[in-house]
Amino acid sequence: xxxxxxxxTLISHAQLSRGPGRVVYWALLAVVVAGFTLVFIGPLYWMxxxxxxxxxxxxxxxxxxxxxxxxxxxxxxAWTNLNLAKLLFNTFYYATGAVLFQLVLDTAAAYSxxxxxxxxxxxxxxxxxxxxxxxxxxxxVPQYVTVIDLPILHLNLLDSPFAIWLPMVANAFNIFLLxxxxxxxxxxxxxxxxxxxxxxxxxxxxxxxxxxxxxLGVVSIFAVTAVWKDFLWPKLVMPSPETRTVSxxxxxxxxxxxxxxxxxxxxxxxxxxxxxxxxxxxxxxxxLTTGSLKG
Length: 295
Known about the structure:
By secondary structure, this protein is an all-alpha fold.
């Protein structure tokens, strides 16, 4: 009887049934899983446990695996001494604005490239994708020059949320993701809306966007995490202590703050992104793997 296609693997069932083959297979699998677990979980474990150690213990060599005398007070000190409430609010505010700008402008750009078919649309898309090959560090100087003297308007955007929002608006990767999803929407739906007299804007609002919730969720999560983890750009354009993001704020206080308190602050700062991932991980995978829609 033929083996079920749903159970096929790179190693045949006959090889797995033999004694040495089975032992080697499970041994390699255990080593690979354990290795990847240490690589990804190890730094997180060190950060969480380090935040519970004393200053002397965290500086000890070799380091201890478990805190000898756990000190939860480090988290309280981090919250109060580093003013994490203000830093988290600033970061959440910047992330919310980045999500709104990207959803509006990137969706409009992807919709026009996918469904409106402008002249030289493929050329424009190709040039946009080519920017993904440019290292981000190369763009720091021209972006900073633009922020301190906005062309035409001649405005200084330092310490303004627009200094973070505007560079994130034209995201070539997100536009490509959105366009790819819009391409999978059946043309019959678009034709039916056109016959009913719907304008392109009404078609976008009533047909395309309701069907695009998974990919819109993915773009939103990417925008939030990009703002939350960014360090260099917010440090350059948000020099005032009142406008700092959480990553820049923790770095600014690191010099005169005990290391265990700084690590505790890092744990608190990482919690929102971890929670977002755990809640929306299924939406992320469904949004990235959706390639077609069945009518």
